[in-house]
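User: Hello, can you help with two protein structures?

Assistant: Certainly.
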Amino acid sequence: MSDLDSKFDQAVIDSKNLAERPDDKTMLQIYALYKQATSGDVEGDRPGMFDFVAAAKYDAWEKQQGKSAEQAKTDYVALIERLKG
């Protein structure tokens, strides 16, 4: 396991134990970076307009399109470190 993978795995754990729950925009960013790091580019159709949460998640993930897994992991780790303070 690479150093980046170890840092990413620790950041995932840390994200579940933050002192304060991040705002919705930041939560979507955390979700999108995690999905891009672990699954790659978003696939499939965008959820319907009445499923607001799923559509917001899809849109956030789609904004990460083309970002490598390594860059997504790096960005995820940096975001969680910033939120930890």
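That covers the first. Now for the second protein you mentioned:
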Amino acid sequence: MTEKRFAGKSVIVTGAGNGLGRAYAEAFAAEGASVTVADIDLSAAREAARAIEGSAPVGVDVADEESVASMVATAVGRFGGVDVLINNAGLHMGQYNLTSTLPLADWRRLFDVNVFGAALCARHSRDAMVSRGGGVILNQSSNSSYLGGGAYSVSKLALNGLTLSLAREFAQDGIRVLGIAPGMIASEAVLERLEDTSKQRILGEQLIRRFGRAEDLVGMALLLCSDDASFVTGQTVTVDGGFIKRV
């Protein structure tokens, strides 16, 4: 039997209570990892963890340093350290499409979560990775970071910069830092909200004429965090069906 890629590894996934975060958590567990299922909604984290054998649910506000430190301590206490950190937690589009009129308090909250939250999680995971001989940090970005889609896009572009900066800073510790930038990943709920004309417009702007699926991201995340990508760091990899190549 082929050994699973993350057998014996400890993985933290933030924003893992639902959606893509939960998909990441389930995928790493299926590849043998012990997963710390972290979410600001502890009940959602617990529900997700019940479906993932050997996982540990934990509540975390990534914008709060004490909360982040507690999350990492849970992973270390349960699983002996941290090998992989998936910085998936984030605030999304909607009101954050605005730029010039977005209240300053909202700008700050957006950056607290999408940028500073990732930095805090990386900072507090560093020693726990060093104790294991190194590790991988994967930051969840967005292809909108290259497209100018409002305040949300600005925060994700800043996250791309953080990815490169951390890659340079953490390389001495054997820690690789990468980003993954999805395009339109269509859940059932998203497809129900989109009108047919909107669906056709989006597909027409992609080189690959189908909507992205969670497994498209999961496959890339598993690859980037595995030893198969051991010579890759500092990159933010776009997974969007070629959308940004058309604009």
